[in-house]
Amino acid sequence: MEAGSVVRIAAKTRGGPSPCPGCGSVSERLHSRYRRRLADVAVGGRRVEIMLSVRRLVCGDTGCTKRTFAEQVAGLTVRYGRRTPLLRVMLEKIAVALAGRAGARLACGLRVIVGRSTMLRLVMALPDPAAVTPRVLGVDDFALRRGHVYGTVLIDCETGAPLDLLPGRDSRPLAEWLTGRSGVELICRDRSGSYAEGARIGAPEATQVADRFHLWQNLGKAVEQCVARHRGCLRTSQTETTESAVNAHKPERQAAPLGAFAERARRHHALVHDLVEQGHGIRGIARRLGWGRHTVQRFARAATWEELVDGRWKGVRPSKLDPFKSHLRQRWEAGCTNARQLHREITALGFQGSYSLVRDYLDDHHERLALAPIAPPAPTVRQVTSWLTRHPDSLTEDDKLQLKPILDHCPELRAASGHIRVFGEMLTELSGHDLPAWISAVRADDLPGLTSFAGGLESDLDAVINGLTMRWNSGPVEGRVNHIKMIKRQMFGRAGLPLLRKRVLLTAADH
């Protein structure tokens, strides 16, 4: 036969007693025979059909409602079934793993023709796993449709197995599930008031434990509010840091020039100034030394001999441009960089120098600006919140350099940083007995965001202290929520809570 064809197997049952499905009495009185067609798992890439001839027997109990019944072959047939138990089990496992449409495609690849609706019916017909009452119950919410429809997942924190999926995330479904289930000693939950109320109503004797991850998440939101209220400090500290960096990049005064020319300039400057102090005039000094009058005049006008060294001390000597430099810098920073235009403006203000003097000064000013570091943008609120709430060992050197001026400039954020570190130590070292003192310290500093966070902790103090003291947390629940997300996306969001609940429970049971 060709690949993909059907393998048909003809078989016939032998005689023997068979129990009646109505009354259970055994009979072997033959009434007739009829043929059943059963689908079985594929063999060698070929579909398999079993053509089975079975007996119809007469029930010997006159009080039974069934006059006749068909015999069943153990391990091969079931009442009203058109598939062998082996094939049904295989399809059930495919349906649990892949649900309807994807499961039907895989079954077709295995040479079993089945529709997506049939696969879904197979899943829904499976019984739920055996119900157990956990000692440590984990509670969390998950989204069926994010922002619109939510549900509640319950798991056994000791084994990680899911127990149930409830509609909604309010207190009533949780309280109803807990009612009548004695034996729940601990309930791990987030900071939701609905779950706290449901646990209190349904299991008043159970100890509630607030999850540490959600506590830190709530603290992060409070820190973000605190940083946002001091957003101006971020910009101010960044401005001061930039100015210090610019000052650090300004060229330092060079050392005194050396060389033969510098030595000669020093001697000539001292000689000219000595003669001037003796009362000699410029012309007389020029005749006595044999120099030009303008040369003597240049040495006499220089206050120090360094001013005479060409190219070394440019800009130190007085200039006609000095009274107008502030105007040039203001116009340059305003966006006007045309030297001709700036020369005309300061000429109108009284400048009597040449255009080349203005041009050279602007060129030098532009070079100094190019050497200065470009100011980076001020850190955002989220960045500073991340620096404050991360472990100090995980911060890079660049993060520490940016955070330090902010804390130095803003005492409120510095105090908030200290409170965050103390709370982090309580969370990692499980020292929840220090929480009341921490709340008092935060209230004393009256920091925005953190004060309201501390007030929220007081309203749920026992559960929070348990969460900061006991080893139990909602980590296994978060892992199960990720599993629910995977199954939900696999179904493209086209199935409701009943099918999702069935697949979550059965998938976990298979593992």
Question: What would a concise description of this structure say?
Answer:
The chain is of the alpha/beta class.
Please give the alpha-carbon distance between the first and last residues: 39 Å
The tally of beta strands, per DSSP, is 11
Helix content: 40-55%
Number of helices: 21
- Which spans have pLDDT < 50 for at least 5 consecutive residues? 248-254, 311-316
Main β-sheet description: 5 strands, mixed
Mean pLDDT over the residues: 85
Radius of gyration, in Å, reads 45 Å
Roughly what fraction of the amino acids lie in strands? Answer: 5-15%
The neighbouring-strand order within the major sheet is 9-8-7-10-11
Overall spatial form:
elongated
Structural class: alpha/beta
Overall structural domain count: 5
Structure, explained:
The protein is α/β, with parallel strands linked by helices and 511 residues long. The protein folds into 5 domains: 6-82, no CATH class; 87-125, no CATH class; 136-211 and 473-510, 2-Layer Sandwich (Nucleotidyltransferase, domain 5), CATH 3.30.420; 215-243 and 379-467; 260-371, no CATH class. Helices cover 50% and strands 14% of the residues. It has 21 helices and 11 strands. It has helices spanning 85-98, 101-109, 116-125, 171-178, 193-202, 212-229, 231-248, 260-277, 282-289, 293-301, 325-333, 339-348, 355-371, 381-389, 397-409, 411-429, 435-445, 450-459, 461-467, 475-490, 497-510; strands spanning 6-12, 18-19, 26-27, 30-43, 46-58, 68-70, 136-145, 149-156, 162-167, 186-189, 207-210. It has a 5-stranded mixed beta sheet with strand order 9-8-7-10-11, sandwiched between helices. Strands 1, 4, 5 and 6 form a 4-stranded mixed beta sheet that branches. The protein has a two-stranded antiparallel ribbon with strand order 2-3. It starts with 5 loop residues before the first strand and ends with a helix.
